[in-house]
Specification:
About 30% of the residues lie in helices and about 25% in strands. It is an alpha/beta fold. The protein starts with a helix and ends in a 14-residue tail after the last strand. The chain folds into two domains: about 140 residues, Luciferase, Domain 3 (Luciferase, domain 3, Roll), CATH 2.30.38.10; about 140 residues, Rossmann fold, CATH 3.40.50.
């Protein structure tokens, strides 16, 4: 298995390409569903010599197959949230220390040492189910920071605790809970970054992101709303400091594919379906074709505009039968 220390130390495009190709050839041999998918596409992985040639695994296969190539049984299996009747995705983690290494390094790249912050988690729907990678991440961040905590519907207690807290604060919440807080209390937050993780989870009306952020900025008295972009199938996270423009750590790459030809990637700046390379997915698959729609920009940043219509990605039926 490729060393995770080498991955988080990536400093340039050459190092990224070297690690990506090394990991691709390993996973193309050892991750059985990915190997089968590549073969069904008629691709000989040994002939792949550049990052641009690497095929991406449809994310739906995390629901139906064990996407895993670890040498030992997984230490943890994270699951996605799902509505009634849906099958959740399963992300098998060989070692939790690799996940922790990834999320601490990602956070510190954009916000500095987590010990300099108080982390307040407003994640009711995630706390009320098992297997959430987001809850695991925020819990470890709270432990390392030493201040903050999780809150369900205890809005008044949370606001009182935040008001008494003299450290810089991050209020990290699922979208509908932040909207509820804004609507019911409209608290003017001091020395605080408000960070939303996306998703109304069927609890509130889906709004255009700019409109939703305007509601929150006015209610909380902050200039911008930050965002975290991650998912159960990933090990790493990207962050937005406002305006919905995300930046990813050096070992993570967003690429755009043609919605009518899933094997064709488009150069930046482009809009289309989102492919993600997350090199910290060392024991699953690092090359994922998601169901998100987004844009990439020339400086490597990106935005997420929504979901693919109909959800299913062409090519997935090669294995889902």
């Amino acid at each position: 298995m490729i060393n995770s220390d080498k991955i988080v130390a990536i400093a340039n495009e050459e190092e990224f390409a070297e690690c990506a190709l090394e990991l691709f050839h390993l996973q193309a041999e050892r991750c059985a569903p990915y190997k089968q998918y590549i073969e069904l596409l008629g691709i000989d992985h040994r002939k792949i010599e550049s990052v641009e040639q690497i095929p991406f695994l449809p994310i739906e296969l995390f629901k139906t197959h064990d996407i895993y190539c670890g040498e030992q049984p997984p230490q943890k299996i994270f699951t996605s949230s799902s509505t009634t009747g849906q099958t959740p995705s399963r992300h098998m983690m060989s070692e939790l220390k690799i996940y922790e290494q990834a999320f601490f390094a990602s956070f510190e790249q954009f916000y500095g040492d987590v010990r300099g912050w108080s982390i307040y988690g407003l994640l009711p729907n995630y706390l009320q189910r098992e297997g959430s990678s987001l809850v695991y991440m925020v819990d470890r961040m709270i432990q390392r920071s030493g201040t903050g905590g999780f809150y369900l519907d205890e809005y008044e207690k949370m606001l009182a605790d935040m008001a008494a807290d003299t450290k810089p604060k991050i209020l990290l919440g699922v979208s509908y809970a932040l909207w509820d807080l804004a609507e019911r209390y409209a608290p003017k937050l001091k020395n605080t970054i408000v960070m939303e993780t996306g998703g109304m989870k069927g609890k509130r009306e889906e709004l255009p992101k700019a409109e939703f952020h305007k509601i929150l900025t006015e209610a909380f008295g902050v200039e911008k709303i930050h965002s975290e972009y991650g998912m159960a199938e990933l090990t790493s996270q990207a962050y937005s400091a406002g305006e919905g423009i995300f930046r990813a750590p050096a070992w993570m790459r967003i690429m755009i594919r043609d919605v009518n030809n899933p094997l064709r990637t488009l150069p930046a700046p482009s809009r289309g379906a989102v492919n993600i390379i997350d090199l910290m997915n060392t024991s699953s698959c690092a090359f994922i074709a998601t169901q998100d729609v987004g844009r990439t920009f020339a400086d490597g940043s990106f935005s997420i505009d929504g979901r693919l219509s109909g959800a299913d990605i062409r090519g997935c039926n090669l294995l889902v039968q």
